[in-house]
Design brief:
Enzyme I, Chain A, domain 2; transferase; 22 strands; Beta-Lactamase; 8-stranded mixed sheet; 4 domains; binds magnesium ion; elongated; Glucose Oxidase, domain 1; transport; 8-stranded parallel sheet; alpha/beta; binds phosphoenolpyruvate
Length: 757
């Protein structure tokens, strides 16, 4: 036996290289391969099983009975060979027959052999066959022998794919074992349904050439790729707290650790020494790491593994020169996009007509990309684990975020059921669309103001499709988030003016930028440093009042854009009344300055405060006299009231918007506002849910700003509701709350004929 794995594999690879290059038919090549391997490692048996029509078929052997070739077949998971393929794991046994999975196949004559070692032949991370060796005397195979077999298996995977010996689907992209229908679940990030074919945002590179022609050249290629990758990672780390692609700082730190890990680079070099190309060597090392990690059941390590996978794929893309994302390649059909995470700008690069949904391995409700996806109307399922092992590029997917799941490779019956549900949804939507021109008036004649939330230029179109009364929350930070550089005042002004023009005489409430904390901008050094609790950090108005250059520019952009109209401005995260006063003064100073220079000004400027920090509720007497309106941001309010991070999926279901704490808190704000004659609305996600909206109306709130898709369902609810009746019911329930307020309100709605979509 040769002394090292590299030397051992190299000797075999040199001989295999000639076989691969020869013009002999594939079967003859396989027959030669088993001879070469058998001789090289001195084993009595060497066999190759390949996956065809879903079963593993003995394709070539040296040492087993010839009659068994193309006759012996094992199902996935059957016998030692089936187990290796199913688990994509190595088996190394000194006594094969004593293994619980051993299945005796008499036609092979294998009962003479005691020891057995088998490795999976892997393509696109799945086993497409098995390479096995056997000896008559009981012995365990040395690590170097197993290593050599694995390296050879890589080369075999190229040979059999090129020769079309495995299931056609495997060559075409789908992984053969990935044929079963499965359902993966995740967190509901953006509601909706979509059907399409799986496309990975960063396409995985399939290694096409495995045997090196010139080892030194391969080594140089890998060195250069490492240099380039390190440069990229260093740049990402420098680009402030968030990378351009949206990766979090911790991920970047881990990338950095791996990128400079000498061990990793050394192992890749060793694999090249054994005769592999740079691509094959990177993949080989990755396979080995995957296998080791699978044996260690540690979630922390699994996360790290994820990072290394990403980096390894990055290195592969650099070395093979295939750097584009799926967006740059263009979507050719209805697509469900799969990514670990995305930045908002990356999402916006995709063709919206073909993008039917997004699956993220990470993602949380407040991530920028989610806000943008919601605005684009693209459903998103987040925190779906094990995606790469379960979904192949091109797989058909049915994404149903309302169920929190995605069906992978659905049966035709499932497809029919999905289509029926989709049709029902569309019918319901059509019915809601028919409500476009009817006003949101309760049965007893109270007009509710229904507005939409927006943030992108195109969102203004939602006003016409929904018949909403205006834009109740325009998140101006979207423009900053999707831009690679700080949007200059002129660009801001143009956007604001376009939106107001599209809205016509319907009001648009512009919220000044809510950035900082977890919404850091890569091009803006906020000096916030590392914050332990960014949601409670230096963000929104806190940052804007201190770094007032940004706020002044925005004020001027808004005031100039609003020339000749009534301009509505609101400030986020007001925690104390003086913060509002200062922000308003800043705007008024800009208005005066512009006026003094003869600029056309708005007819009027109406100033509002968002109430999303509970502390402000204790200063209503101080703020109400100075504001023109209040808008309650229930997303942040809930997280602060319950001390529950709105981005933490573990807490997502724990606290209900219909809990007595929230409802009583809201009542406490609404009553003084009403007495002071200050309009008060809700612009958080809560208002977009019909049952919640019903409760809000029962508390005396008659202005809601919601996601456009919710306008129809909420309007239908309003038109079937008796406001006086729900007001009485809310008073009764809040006097004596029950634990399950949602259940109680749902039951009340049902008995009172309230339409809940
Ligand atoms: C809120 O906090 O409820 C809100 C509407 O603002 P955002 O979701 O943008 O923080
Ligand atoms: Mg908020």
């Amino acid at each position: 036996m040769p002394v090292s794995a590299a030397a051992s594999a190299r000797e075999i690879l040199v001989r295999l290289h000639d076989v691969m290059a020869s013009r002999t038919p594939a079967q003859a090549k396989l027959n030669q391969v088993v001879q070469i391997i058998g001789e090289a490692i001195g084993s009595e048996v060497c066999s190759i099983y390949l996956l065809r029509e879903g079963v593993l078929e003995l394709f070539a052997t040296r040492g087993l009975a010839e009659e068994a070739v193309h006759v012996t077949k094992l199902a996935m998971g059957e016998g030692l060979v089936g187990t290796i393929a199913e688990d994509v794991e190595v088996l190394n046994l000194d006594e094969a027959a004593s293994h619980p999975d051993f299945a005796y196949k008499p036609e092979t004559g294998e009962d003479r052999f005691h020891s057995f070692a088998g490795v999976p032949i892997i393509r696109r991370e799945r086993a497409v066959g098995v390479l096995a060796v056997q000896h008559s005397e009981p012995r365990k195979y040395a690590d170097v022998e197993i290593e050599a077999l694995q390296t050879v298996a890589m080369v075999l995977s190229e040979l059999i794919a090129n020769a079309g010996l495995i299931d056609a689907a495997a060559g075409a992209g789908a992984r053969p074992q990935m044929t079963a229908t499965i359902r993966l679940s995740g967190q509901k990030l953006v509601e909706g349904m979509g059907s399409g074919f799986a496309v990975y945002h960063q396409p995985r590179i399939v290694v096409e050439h495995t045997v090196a022609e010139d080892i030194d050249a391969e080594r140089r290629r890998v060195y250069a790729a490492f240099d380039k990758m390190r440069e990229q990672i260093d740049r990402m780390a420098r680009e402030a707290e968030f990378g351009v692609a949206g990766e979090h700082v911790e991920v970047i730190e881990t990338y950095k650790m791996f990128a400079y890990d000498e061990g990793w680079a050394r192992r890749i070099n060793e694999a090249i020494d054994s005769g592999l190309t740079a691509e094959a060597a990177i993949e080989r090392v990755q396979q080995r790491t995957r296998q080791r990690m699978r044996q260690i059941d540690d979630p922390l390590l699994a996360d790290r593994m994820h990072d290394l996978e990403d980096l390894s794929n990055r290195l592969l893309r650099i070395v093979s020169g295939q750097m584009g994302t799926a967006a740059q390649l263009g979507l050719r059909q209805d697509t469900i996009l799969i990514a670990r995470n995305l930045g908002p700008a990356e999402l916006l690069e995709y063709d919206r007509r073909r993008l039917k949904g997004v699956i993220l391995e990470e993602g949380s409700l407040t991530a920028h990309v989610i806000i943008v996806a919601r605005a684009m109307g693209v459903p998103v399922l987040g925190r779906v684990s094990d995606v790469r092992r379960q979904i192949a590029d091109g797989d058909q997917l049915l994404l149903d975020v309302s169920e929190g799941s995605v069906l992978v490779r659905p049966s035709s019956a499932m497809e029919e059921a999905f289509d029926a549900k989709l049709e029902l949804r569309q019918k319901r939507r059509a019915a809601f669309a028919a409500l476009r021109d009817v006003p949101p008036v309760t049965k007893d004649g109270h007009r509710v103001t229904l507005m939409v939330n927006a943030g992108l230029r195109d969102d203004a179109a939602a006003l016409d499709t929904t018949g909403a009364d205006g834009i109740g929350l325009f998140r101006t930070e979207f423009q900053f988030l999707v831009s690679a550089t700080l949007p200059q005042r002129e660009r801001q002004q143009r956007l604001y003016r376009d939106v107001m023009e599209a809205a016509g005489d319907r009001p648009v409430v512009f919220r000044t930028i809510d950035i900082g904390g977890d919404k850091a901008l890569p091009y803006l050094n906020t000096e916030a440093g590392d914050e332990e609790n960014p949601a409670m950090g230096w963000r929104a108005l806190r940052l804007a009042l201190e770094r007032d250059g940004l706020m002044k520019a925005q004020a001027r952009a808004l005031i100039e854009a609003g020339a000749g109209r009534t301009l509505h401005v609101m400030f986020p995260m007001v925690s104390e009344a003086w913060e509002f006063d200062e922000a308003k003064s800043l705007f008024e100073a800009q208005r005066a300055w512009l006026g003094s220079r003869g600029r056309r000004l708005p007819l009027d400027v109406r100033y509002g405060a968002m109430l999303e920090v509970p502390a402000l509720a204790e200063q209503l007497d101080l703020i109400l006299p100075n504001v023109d309106f209040l808008s309650i941001g229930t997303n942040d309010l809930t997280q602060f009231l319950f001390a529950a991070d709105r981005a933490n999926p573990k807490l997502a279901e724990r606290y209900d918007w219909l809990s007595p704490s929230i409802l009583r808190f809201l009542r406490r704000v609404v009553e003084p506002a009403r007495e002071a004659d200050v309009p008060v609305g809700v612009c958080g996600e809560m208002g977009g849910r019909p049952l919640e909206a019903m409760a809000l109306i029962g508390l005396g709130i008659d202005r809601l700003s919601i996601t456009p898709a919710a306008v129809g369902p909420v309007k239908a609810m309003i038109r079937s509701l008796d406001r006086d009746a729900i007001t009485a019911e809310m008073a009764r329930l809040l006097a004596h709350p029950v634990r399950d307020m949602r259940g109680a309100l749902g039951a009340w709605a049902a008995t009172n004929g309230v339409e809940l979509a």
